[in-house]
Amino acid sequence: MSRGDEVSVEAFVRQHSPWMLSVARRILRDDAAAEDSVQEAFLNAFNNIDKFEGRSSLKTWLHRIVVNRCLMTLRSSKRKAEEQLDEFMPQFDSNGCRIEDPWPQLLSADKICEQKQLSKVVAENIDKLPEKYRIVLQLRDIEEFSTAEVAKQLDLSESNVKVRLHRARSALKQMLEPVLRGHL
Amino acid sequence: MKRLGVLKIIQSFGKRAMFYLPLMITCRQFEDFIIDYLEDDLPARQKMVFELHLKVCRECRDYLAAYKRATEVTTRVGKGPELNDELPAVPDDFVKAVLMARKQAK
After folding, report:
1. Which end of chain B is flanked by fewer CB atoms within 10 Å, N or C?
2. Residue among B57, B82, B95 minimizing CB distance to A17
């Protein structure tokens, strides 16, 4: 492919497009923007294939490229008004004691994952998060970058990433309670 | 046995009074430590204080278990299908557009 053979380039695009589009859709939540970003990511990869040193797998290298391209798209897009997360945050009484209903049953992850429509419910609730929290959770918990990598990608301090990640996870825990309790 | 005894003594103070004992923190303070605890970034002493609170506080124990389970489930299902044959087919138009863009960029 580095020599530009047309057939192998097309095979490369066909092989990697499905998962790259899936990553871009997860981050951008917009099919057209996802296709544009993946196209840009491919061009970036073609231009820089000689710099690929093989220290990571080709897929890992492409994953970073497509994620970075999507983040550039997000930065340049109009931001939605930031909603508040407060209603989903943990509650404390005036003494600083947590208010938390007992959990007589917390389903195992395997049991939870058997529930129909789970992916849809999780995706819908992630979409409810304000953008600055959603993107941190998406990169850290779904794309599985390290906290340091997320900080670098978003040009934030690591402590800021941790604060946003914790708020996003706390809100998601609250939103997913019916699923976790087996009430879906 | 001795350790359990200490925990029982701490718990016998009642939740509010318990927070005034040495090495005890409130649930609100515990909340601020959660992410560093999970990232294994807490210094040894703070980690001990965190884990002591966890032992004596049912609410925080339940909360943390549910928080971790929600995170685990999100990671497991958040990606959706990953294998090419489970993913939507890529339109030919998209492949052609990439190849065309590559030619133009040369």
Report:
1. N
2. B95
**Tens digit of each residue's pLDDT (9 = 90 or more) over A82-113:** 667 888 999 999 888 999 999 988 899 999 98
Q: How far is the alpha carbon of B52 from chain A, nearest alpha carbon, in Å?
A: 15
Q: What's the ipTM? A: 0.86
Q: Is the pTM of this model over 0.90?
A: no
Summarised one tens digit per residue, pLDDT across range A153-183 is 999 999 999 999 999 999 999 999 999 988 7
Collect all residues of chain A within an 8 Å Cβ-Cβ radius of residue B77.
Answer: 113, 118-119, 122
- List the structure tokens of A53: 């040193």
Pairing of strands A91-92, A98-99: antiparallel
Rounded CA-CA distance B18/A39 in Å is 59
Residues in B touching A119 (Cβ below 8 Å): 77-78, 80
